[in-house]
């Protein structure tokens, strides 16, 4: 039987959105009409989150008010504190985040309401809390409490401070902030779609975000950034080309390559490649950057595939001192801004999302009693 032409919902328009847009042939990405190349390196993650959740790039006064909301919103209830140590012992990072966000919902002052006002407050709170949850998880498994976030610092600076335990250099913060901007939203990617499907039943924002976290975790989506680093670590620097070819011969996918929508370079990879080069050189050992470059050339020569957002993000995070198993959680820290904006948008103009399926099973079956089967 021929494959369903819309298998994986390829090219199916599943929602209308004013949040982001992709031109996959030209390799362009826009957040609310702003080209990602205009935003990256010039707009902070907080401004980007405001753009997505509220609808506009903020004025200074609006940014100050939103920043104050984020600082206030990052306080977590007692359930997280009471359970994080056991969760950190038993669950891998993305599983733990799925659980912790669910726990945090119990203490959310707006729980039970899907009003536009409640959704906006929840969106800011979830965006503020996600990096704190990652830091708490990481501290719990390493036997301590994370450093207190500094209200004067950005989300990017506080995250690096809490994860590495050191006050980060200015340039490291700028680069990490740009990473957060680059990952913030991406039309109907799998995790955003999962969030919208959940929200469209008129379920609540936290439930939709739990669905999104579980979906981002998979290695065909956000989980690929961790796998990219594991691949680099498993290969000898002189054996990149052979290792890629061996994997392809075995029919394995090369993590961090290929994309459903981009038919050319992912515009985010352009920035991430450059930041990886800069950090690699500054670190005094750019081996992983150079291996990545070679891998890019070999994969293109063999398969004609381009790197996606996850490919160079891996080495950027590595050079920033972020543990490899926190790469996908970092993705969630950024994407929280987009997911929550999509839930706001879905609830504002809702219709149940319920696609059809093509039946491929047997027909005209005759029922027989259990002892005769
Ligand atoms: C943030 C993100 O989610 S970005 C994506 C992160 N995921 C990855 O990096 C995982 C590796 N990449 C992939 O698995 C895919 O390219 C996806 C999931 C991103 C896109 O999937 P789809 O659009 O469904 O493409 P699909 O998997 O059908 O691939 C089409 C063809 O290209 C090949 N292909 C696609 N990606 C790769 C890859 N990374 N390595 C090797 N071959 C690949 C497939 O084997 C397939 O070949 P075939 O037609 O001969 O069977
Ligand atoms: O759009 C997609 O399918 C995956 C992706 O690049 C993202 O979510 O950033």
TrEMBL record:
GO cellular component terms, A-Z: cytosol
Coiled coil residues, start to end: none
Residues at the catalytic site: 259, 310
InterPro entries: 2-MeCitrate/Citrate_synth_II, Citrate_synth-like_lrg_a-sub, Citrate_synth-like_sm_a-sub, Citrate_synthase, Citrate_synthase_AS, Citrate_synthase_bac-typ, Citrate_synthase_sf
Source organism, top-level taxon: Bacteria
GO molecular function, one term: citrate synthase activity
Gene3D superfamilies: Citrate Synthase, domain 1 (1.10.580.10), Cytochrome P450-Terp, domain 2 (1.10.230.10)
GO biological process, one term: tricarboxylic acid cycle
Protein family: Belongs to the citrate synthase family.
Record NCBIfam families: cit_synth_II (TIGR01800)
The protein's name in its UniProt record: Citrate synthase
Biological source species: Sphaerisporangium melleum
């Amino acid at each position: 039987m021929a494959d369903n032409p819309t298998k994986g919902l390829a090219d199916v328009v599943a929602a209308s959105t004013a949040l982001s847009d992709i031109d996959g042939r030209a390799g362009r990405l826009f957040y609310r009409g702003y080209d990602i190349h205009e935003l990256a390196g010039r707009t902070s993650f907080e401004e980007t989150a405001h753009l997505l959740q509220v609808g506009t790039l903020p004025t200074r006064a609006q940014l100050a008010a939103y920043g104050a909301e984020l600082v206030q919103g990052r306080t977590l209830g007692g359930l997280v504190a009471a359970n994080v140590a056991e969760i950190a012992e038993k669950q891998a990072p993305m599983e733990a985040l799925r659980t912790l966000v669910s726990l945090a919902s119990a203490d959310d002052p707006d729980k039970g309401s899907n009003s536009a006002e409640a959704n906006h407050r929840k969106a800011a709170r979830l965006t503020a809390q996600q990096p704190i949850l990652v830091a708490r998880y990481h501290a719990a498994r390493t036997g301590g409490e994370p450093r207190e976030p500094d209200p004067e610092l950005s989300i990017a600076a506080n995250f690096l401070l809490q994860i590495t335990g050191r006050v980060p250099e200015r340039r490291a913060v700028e680069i990490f902030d740009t990473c957060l901007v680059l990952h913030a939203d991406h039309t109907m990617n799998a995790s955003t779609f999962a969030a919208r499907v959940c929200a469209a039943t008129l379920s609540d924002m936290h439930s939709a975000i739990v669905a999104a976290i579980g979906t981002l975790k998979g290695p065909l989506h956000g989980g690929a950034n961790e796998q990219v680093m594991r691949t680099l670590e498993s290969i000898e620097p002189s054996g990149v080309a052979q290792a890629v070819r061996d994997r392809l011969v075995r029919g394995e996918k090369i993590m961090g390559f290929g994309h459903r929508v981009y038919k050319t370079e992912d515009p985010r990879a352009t920035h991430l490649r450059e930041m990886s080069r800069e950090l690699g050189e500054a670190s005094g050992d750019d081996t992983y950057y150079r291996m990545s470059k070679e891998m890019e050339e070999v994969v293109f020569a063999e398969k004609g595939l381009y790197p996606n957002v996850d490919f160079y993000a891996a080495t950027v995070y590595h050079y920033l001192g972020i543990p490899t198993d926190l790469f996908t959680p970092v993705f969630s820290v950024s994407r929280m801004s987009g997911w929550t904006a999509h839930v706001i948008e879905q609830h504002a103009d809702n219709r149940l999302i319920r696609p059809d399926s093509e039946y491929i099973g047997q027909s005209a079956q005759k029922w027989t009693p259990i002892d005769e089967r």
